[in-house]
Structure to design on (351 residues):
């Protein structure tokens, strides 16, 4: 029987948008048709967000994006001040980004392995498969336990996911060797809040289960999803003008869109999200949230329709083109860092 090392040989390498000037390619796509022209318009809308110094940019991440090689793209968007808030699935932030920040990697699965015929063998070797990528389950358990250790060190009380993820960034900051290109760590340094509305659905959930079970009847760390919603609503009220760059759909998409309605419920007169781009492979015939169009969101009073664009494309194809276009246009150099986390920690986002 093969050994684990026979499968975990070739690592996923994260694409670096600074090395590839996509501006000429995207500009040429503007004069094409179908998805090419949609992507070119989406790139223009995202660059408009970056140029608009009054706009708070919300990046939404769903699906297995970090394991697929997009980690450096998103870390650079944070580092270069091209995003102000992140709303994500827990898997991207914890199981994949924080996991790699601890020194572990994702690996390429060959053409045979990605078909699934070796899944039973992978299970015996404690290897998990994400389509054509592989991850060491034993290393993932260490990631789970690290979140337990972080929870054990916190004051026992309810936390928003943003607060807990910031503690994760603090943990990384305290390590002798600082991680390179980690979204969690770069966001910690830049003051970019990260929200994971379904935070328990990832390695952090396993760690928190272990934490709470270990505390028994004693006070313990808990997650408050309503606090997540309130905090992001407060940031919408404070920023007012906002844009969405959504990769995938699901909970991150709906959570970020819903803050407009939430702000209205709190009595705040805020505009809809002024800009919106969504990259998705979901079809409207699915009847699922991931495929609901941005025009549909407009009927709910969430997204304006002047600068919105759906791009029906797989994320690893579209994200480097769109993000690379704005990066090489260079307008990010004129943006000031917002450090929204400070507003939440001081209560400055209320009102």
């Amino acid at each position: 029987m093969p050994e684990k090392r026979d499968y975990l040989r070739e690592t996923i390498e994260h694409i670096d948008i600074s090395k590839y000037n996509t501006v000429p390619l995207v500009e040429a796509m503007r004069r094409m048709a179908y998805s090419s022209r949609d992507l070119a318009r989406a790139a223009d809308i995202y660059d408009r967000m970056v140029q608009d110094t009054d706009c708070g940019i919300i990046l939404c991440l769903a699906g297995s994006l970090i394991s697929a090689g997009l980690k450096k793209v998103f870390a650079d968007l944070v580092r270069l001040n091209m995003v102000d808030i992140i709303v994500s699935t827990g898997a991207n932030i914890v199981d994949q980004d924080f996991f790699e920040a601890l020194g572990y990697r994702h690996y390429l699965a060959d053409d045979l392995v990605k078909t699934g015929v070796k899944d039973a063998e992978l299970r015996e070797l404690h290897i998990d498969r994400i389509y054509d990528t592989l991850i060491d389950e034993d290393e993932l358990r260490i990631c789970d336990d690290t979140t337990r250790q972080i929870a054990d060190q916190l004051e026992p009380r309810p936390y928003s996911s943003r607060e807990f993820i910031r503690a994760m960034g603090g943990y990384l900051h305290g390590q002798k060797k600082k991680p390179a290109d980690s979204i969690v760590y770069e966001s910690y340094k830049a003051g970019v809040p990260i929200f994971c509305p379904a935070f328990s659905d990832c390695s952090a959930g396993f760690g928190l289960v272990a934490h709470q079970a270990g505390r028994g009847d004693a006070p313990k760390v808990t997650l408050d999803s309503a606090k997540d919603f309130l905090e992001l609503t407060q940031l919408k009220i404070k920023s007012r003008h906002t844009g969405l760059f959504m990769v995938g759909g699901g909970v991150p998409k709906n959570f970020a869109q819903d803050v407009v309605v939430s702000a209205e419920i709190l009595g705040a007169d805020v505009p809809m999200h002024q800009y919106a781009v969504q990259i998705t492979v979901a079809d409207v015939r699915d009847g699922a949230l991931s495929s609901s169009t941005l025009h549909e969101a407009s009927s709910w009073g969430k997204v304006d329709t002047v600068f919105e664009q759906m791009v029906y494309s797989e994320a690893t194809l579209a994200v480097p083109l769109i993000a690379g276009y704005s990066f090489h246009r260079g307008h990010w150099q004129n943006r000031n860092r917002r450090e929204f986390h400070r507003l939440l920690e001081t209560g400055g986002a209320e009102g």
